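User: Sequence in, structure out. Go.
Assistant: Echoing your sequence, followed by the structure tokens.
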Amino acid sequence: MKIVIIKYNAGNIRSVLFALERIGAEALVTDEPDRIQSADKIIFPGVGEASSAMQYLRERKLDLLIQDLRQPVLGVCLGMQLLCAHSEENNTECLGVFSESVKKFMPHANETLKVPQMGWNNIYDLKSDLFAGIRENSYCYFVHGYYAGLGETTIAKTDYVQPYSSALHKDNFYGVQFHPEKSAEAGERILKNFIQL
């Protein structure tokens, strides 16, 4: 099986590569269109800022390529947010695979919650084969100041400031807001499930 990690102007790609190696999967990190298109599975990870990431993708026409992919694609953290319609982070038009919009966490004045959310939080209302063998309210690792709202493509929820989409699914596209590569056994199982889809 050929697994590709899309290389673009965003960090955290190496940790995804190492996580795949831990579960016995090899992946190629590339931004070459031919190699991306010929992959069996594609992972679109990222930590960074939405507008500069989208600019990088557009300059290389990777935005159009990603939208046209037909094999299973997994967006992780910023990768999931870029698959949404729009991000409030620098008013960025994103890829539009998912119709959800990405908004900034705005804690109420009386809340002690810090932004960004950093650390372990639970996922619930799980609705996809991506979560086969994952218990409701399993804990995963999050680092983010923006979130995707709830919508028709929501397949997992998490509460922080308010309920939001911690995972999305439409057709061959999946997205997770948390970092499976840092989420211990639950994260490893989710990566295995994606590879087996």
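User: And one key feature?
Assistant: The chain has one domain: 3-196.
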